[in-house]
Amino acid sequence: MARTPDGDAVGSAHHAGAGLAPGVAALLHYRRVWLRGDILAGVTVAAYLIPQVMAYAQIAGLPPVAGLWAILGPLAVYAALGSSRQLSVGPESTTALMTAAGVAALVGAAGPERYAEVAAVMAIAVGILCLIGFLGRLGFLADMLSRPVLVGYMAGIAVLMIVSQLGASTRLRVEGEALPAQLASVAAQLGDVHLPTLVLSAACLLTLFALRRISPLVPGPLVVIVLAALAVWLMDLTDVGIRVVGQMPTGLPVPRVPSLADLDLLALLPAALGIALVGYSDNVLTARAFASRKRERIDNNQEFLALGVANLSSGFLQGFPVSSSGSRTALGDAMGSRTQAYSLVALTVVVTTMVVLSPALAWFPRAALGAVVVYAATRLVDVAEMRRIYRFSRMEASLAAATTAGVLFLGILPGIGLAVGLSVVDLLRRLSRPHGGVLGYIPGMAGMHDLSDYETGSEVPGLLVYRYDAPLFFANAEDFRTRALRAVDEETTPPRWFLLNAEANTQLDLTAVDAMESLRRDLSDRGVEFAIARAKFEILGALEDGGVLERIGRDRIFATLPTAVEAYTRWRAERDGAPPA
After folding, report:
1. Do 164 and 304 fall into the same domain?
2. What mean pLDDT do residues 110-139 have?
3. Is residue 12 domain-resident?
4. Higher pLDDT, 519 or 289
C-alpha cells in the first residue's frame, strides 16, 4: 500500500471492512505515534470552538449554551461515521445564519422557547434530508456549485454575518429583513450607539487580528473571550451596560424529541433543504481540500450519512443544524491531528468545561462573542481567490459577483437557489457552445490535431475531419449542426467527405440524433459523404436506436482516424481512377 511522507497508509479511512463506519475502522488501526498530535489538536480545537460555537448560537438567535449542546453529538458521530480524518463538524457560521433566517420566518413573534424548539426540528429535518441523499446516492450534488459561485456565496454570507452582529456590538436595535432595511435602521440610530459596548467589541476584534498575525496557532477566540470576561468581572462593566451571557444551564442536555406543535413541516422543508445542500457541499469541499494534501479519499455518499446522523444528534440534544468548520479543521491539522481521535479529545474537553466551568461561561460578554463572529466572517472573504477568478475569466468573476448580490439583496435561501441556478446556467453555457475544430496533420507530430492551434498544419485533400468537444444533447445539437456546416462552407475546396471525430461526444440524446441525421442530409445534398470515427459503443447504440446508423451506413463507421483516412483514400482513388496515395 502506498504511504504518505509521514508513513500513513493512503486512504487509511477506507480500510477493508470499514462499511458504514470508516472512522471506527481508522481508530481500530490506530498507531501510538499519532497520539501526541491528536491530543494537542483536540485540546487546541476545543479551546477555539467553545467561544466560537457560543457565538454561532447567538447568530442563530439562540442562547449561547445551544452552541455547546449542538457540538456534543456531531463530534462523536463524525468521529465514527465520517470519511475524513481531519474534518471538524459542528456549529458553523453559514448554517447558523441560515437557521436564523429559516426559523424566524416560521415562528414569527413566538417566544425564545418555541424558537429553540423549531431550530431543533430544523436540525432533525436537515438530518433526514441528508440520510435521503445517502440512500439515494446523491453525492454528485457536491459538484453542482462551481468554485466562483461558492466564493461569491461565502462573500455574501460574510457581509450578512457582520450585519447580524451590529446589534451585539452597538446595542442598537437592527430592524428589517432585507440588508438595505437593516443598514438603514442602523444609520438612523447612530446617535444611540452604546460606546462601552462598541469599544469592547472593537478592542476584541483588533486583538483577534493581532493574535492571528503574531501567533496563528494561539486559540485567539478563547484568549479574547477570557480576557474580556475577566475585564467585565474585575471592572464591574455590567454596571455601565455591558451585557453578558448570564447564567447557563449546568450539566449536559437531556436527549428529547422537540415539539412539532403548530409547525408547518412543508413550510420548514425549503429552509432545511437549503441548509442541507450548503452544509453538505461545505463538508465535502473542506474535507477534499485537506484530504488531497495527505493523498486520502473522501466518500461523497458517506459524508451524507455522517452529516445526516450528526444533525439528528444535534436536534435531539436541543441544538441546531450543523456542518463543518474550515477554521477548526485547519487549526487541528496545523496542530498535528492524524485521526478523528482529536475530535473525541475535543469532546472530552467541552464536556468537562460544561460540567465544571459553567459559572465562568456566564461572564462571557455578548459584545466579545459578536467580535468573534465578525472575525470569522472576515475569514470567509477570500480576496486572493477573487483576484484569481477575475484574472482567469471575466465571466466567472461575474458569476461570483452575481451570487454575492443575490445573497445580499434576495436573502440567504433565494441566494442558494440563485447560486445553484447560476452554476447550472454556466454548465449549460459551456456545454452548449463548446470548442470545435477542423483536424489535420502537423509536421513532426503523430496523429491529427486541431489546425487552429498550429500554423504549419494541412488537411487531407477533399477530407474534412471535424471534432466537437462536448457531449451532444438538446442544448447544443443545433449549434453542432450549424458549426459543422459552417466548417464545410469555409473550406477553400469543397470537401468530398465529412469525417466526424466523435471521441469527445460521450453522450447523445434524441435531439442530437436528429441533428446528426439533419447534418447527414444537408451534406448529402451538397454531395458530401458523412462518416464517423472513434465513436463509443453507447453513441453507436443511440444512432442505431434512432434509426440513423443504417442511413449513415456501417461502412462509414470507423474505429480509428487512420482507418477512416485510409478508407477515404481508397474511395477517392476508385472514384478518380487514380492509384491510392
Report:
1. yes
2. 88
3. no
4. 519
